[in-house]
Amino acid sequence: MGYKEEFIEFMVRSNVLRFGDFTAKSGRKTPYFINAGNYRTGAQIAKLGDFYAACIVENQIKEYDLLFGPAYKGIPLSVAAAIALFRNYQMDIPYSFNRKEAKDHGEGGVVVGYQPQDNDRVLIIEDVTTAGTSVRESFTLLKNIAKVNITTLVVSVDRMEKGTGSRSALQELQEDYGIRTQAIVNIRDIVNHLYQREIDGKILIDDEMKQRIEAYLAVYGS
Hints:
It is built from seven helices and ten strands. It is α/β, with parallel strands linked by helices. The protein has one domain: Rossmann fold (3-Layer(aba) Sandwich), CATH 3.40.50.2020. It has a six-stranded mixed beta sheet with strand order 5-4-3-6-7-8, with helices on both faces. A two-stranded antiparallel ribbon has the order 1-2. The two termini are 28 Å apart.
């Protein structure tokens, strides 16, 4: 089993990937839901970092000098990925993340950790990008700090849904900013792996659920 399949089952067992009846932030009625807020233990965040690091290395992503995690969800993700890159691949990569509000005492500023420098290549670590708002805000924030080159965005799951137009949120970011986008897995990977497969004695995607997901993507898929 590859890291993609392992990640899908990890999300299921962490109660992060669920199937049923949900309403997304966009208001869309969706048969599946991904809630990264359900990662809550040291073992889970350590393993999550392993998957981000594997995605970066397996996809030969090399054009970066630092990892940046947009507040708030990107903060533990960037730290976990940096730890995993060092622990698993002996790659000691700087990381940083932003505060929601600038600090007005001590060293001040809005960035914690490594301070971006001119010509640094930045890899942004995010959770699930729906509208790309936090990533777009990160572009503005980082460009106001130094003349950085934001090269890559890595997310956990690509829902492959339309953003503001006919393109997916990841496609919009890739084309609007000229960056590389990469997901650990996408919804097609999830369906292909879980269809009629028992996870801890339970089948999560049977014929009925598969039909519901396909119907949803027929309307909202990019």
